[in-house]
Amino acid sequence: MESTYFRKGFGLKDAIGGQLASDYASAVVDLLRARDYTLEVGPVTFRLAREFGFCYGVDRAVDYAYETRRKFPGRQLYLVGEIIHNPHVNRKLEDMGIRFLLSDEHGEFDFSHVTPEDVVIMPAFGVTIRDFDRLRAIGCVLVDTTCGSVLNVWKRVEGYARDGFTSVIHGKHYHEETRATASQVTRHEGGKYLVVLNMDEARLLCDFIERGGDPVSLAQRFEHRYSPGFDFATDLQRVGVANQTTMLSGESLAIAGELRKSMERRYGTEALPQHFRSFDTICSATQDRQDAVRGLLQEPLDLMVVVGGYNSSNTCQLATLVQSHGMRGFHIEDADCIDPAAGTVRHQPARTKHEETVADWLAGVRRIGLTAGASTPNNKIGETIARVCETLGLGAELEAAARG
Description:
The structure is a single chain. Helices cover 41% and strands 17% of the residues. It contains 14 helices and 17 strands. It has a five-stranded parallel sheet with strand order 1-7-6-4-5. Helix 12 (313-324) links the parallel strand 12 (303-307) and strand 13 (329-332). 46% of the residues are buried.
């Protein structure tokens, strides 16, 4: 009987290696690495964060998607949502004939046209238990690229539910990963979850835990962000903290710390283990990229450029980190956001969901820091450097620097 579920590669990495290099490699980025992450182009110096771009989980997901196309050349391939949050990568997959199954405003997917003969790829963020069960019932081939760091969070949340603890998840309730993580509580009858976006929301819970209050107003504030039948009066008596793996690590740890203190004040130190649990589930790649940006911001820079999808949570967190350090920063989706002829840049300011256009953004700039989210391929970083050089009239100098 043919296997219909795959979580490991098909052994085709050598067969797809040339295509991956052609689609995503960058000679400029290779040069930066070779020169201690520094590239001097005329009077301008580029400094690249020492951890940037594709992480292991993203590498694996993209590799696996390419292998799947090679493994099943005659079958219709579908992808649940986006493989990762990068428009360039997703367009490449579309060009390979992979069709995207997009969700509606409530996060619901339409699988009605998927047949048992089709192949469905699940993204690095994972899918909800309900969606997984629906796909299994169809009988199609499933290729699971869920990141190992995400699976680690799922185990924590499932454990909380098993032991009667409500999962308080630091994340974005609409994000695919958070929806998939929250669904893990359904593995156990009576499992509960609540999603908090930031410290302000966490402190609302802390206040309620310590002093009580109006559960109706709290329910309105967190509408659509808790499990069905959630009772604020009883379901916050035992909580376990988890997080979307791409959130700012410092904020996740601080939220866990505040909840811990409130539970300790409410129930006492000796009883704390019966009421509170917490594990740091920020993925190592997210942490490494954030730490690398912090390190780069210690150097004298005129501005920072963050490259990556606007809907990429980990990329947005890097932009937020730049802003929080008081550095002038620009989060761009890719090099197309830079217009050398006009001398402008389109970017998404940190903590917003809209683009702005800035003129003369490179005036007087001599030291430029760069980083990229974990879903950003190297060629998008290299193209950004080339476009900056073109804007500054340093195209020939970049070519000379690349030649050594």
